[in-house]
Amino acid sequence: MASITPISHCFWRGARNALPFLLVILPFGALFGVAATDAGLDLAEVMGFSILVLAGASQFTALQLMNDHAPAFMVIVTSLAVNLRMAMYSVSLAPHLGRAAPWHRVLIAYLMTDQSFGLSQQEYERAPAMSLPQKVAYFLGACLPTCLPWSLSTLAGALAGKAIPEGLALDFAVPVTFLAMIAPGLRSVPHLAAAAVSVIAALALSSLPTGTGLLLAALLAMWTGATVERLLERRNAA
């Protein structure tokens, strides 16, 4: 039972469950290292960028805007907008991890990624009897094969630079990562409705400034999922 499961078991279970993401984290991180080096950043700047931000999507967004000579204010605001999904993740995990010790919450906030959120949310739904220490341990375990390898693969990409063949197409890692996280969660009508709306809205709003369309699509998808879930609950209660 979850109540007697050792904390270390939860940690290593999270780490094992996150291992498949290495298949996409490593090329994704290497791709950023190559792109950042090509953009003129030195090794210290590339690694500082990767370690301090620790968010691939906003890192690539900021890098693209920097290449386009956008004002620093626009780079910062747009990158924050892209990363606002982390606030949505935090709200979703707050019922599970909100009572953790302050230093745990700081660490969780820093290590929050799409992968650690997706795995943890699924695990908490699968095993609702998990204690708070078990939930924290699982989350931190899920971060082990994703966060550290991200920085190491960025370093490898920055050092290798142009030695990586252009035809290797490392950018496949981006869509594959998100598909691997989303697919297991599409288990109900509200989930499917939210996914459908997010795809349609993201395509329809793709002409908006960087990140804005995706944020609006995410908000519409969450509203759709919540609305469909309420309608189903009312129908079942009738």
CA-based shape: globular
Terminal CA distance reads: 35 Å
C-alpha Rg (nearest Å): 19 Å
Q: Helical content, roughly? A: over 70%
How many distinct helices? 12
**N-to-C SSE series?**
HHHHHHHHHHHH
- Total number of beta strands: 0
Low-confidence stretches: none
Structure classification: mainly alpha
Strand content: under 5%
User: Main sheet, how many strands, which sense, barrel?
Assistant: none
Give the number of domains: 2
Summed over residues and divided by their number, the pLDDT gives a mean of 83
Protein name: Branched-chain amino acid ABC transporter permease
Pfam families: AzlC
Membrane topology: Multi-pass membrane protein
Subcellular location: Cell membrane
How would you portray this structure in words?
The protein is an all-alpha fold and 238 residues long. The chain has two domains: 2-172, no CATH class; 186-238, no CATH class. The chain is 76% helix and 0% strand. The chain has helices at residues 7-18, 22-38, 43-53, 56-67, 72-82, 85-97, 102-111, 114-126, 132-160, 173-182, 189-204, 212-237. Helix 4 packs antiparallel against helix 5 (72-82) and helix 8 runs antiparallel to helix 9 (132-160). The radius of gyration is 19 Å and the shape is globular.
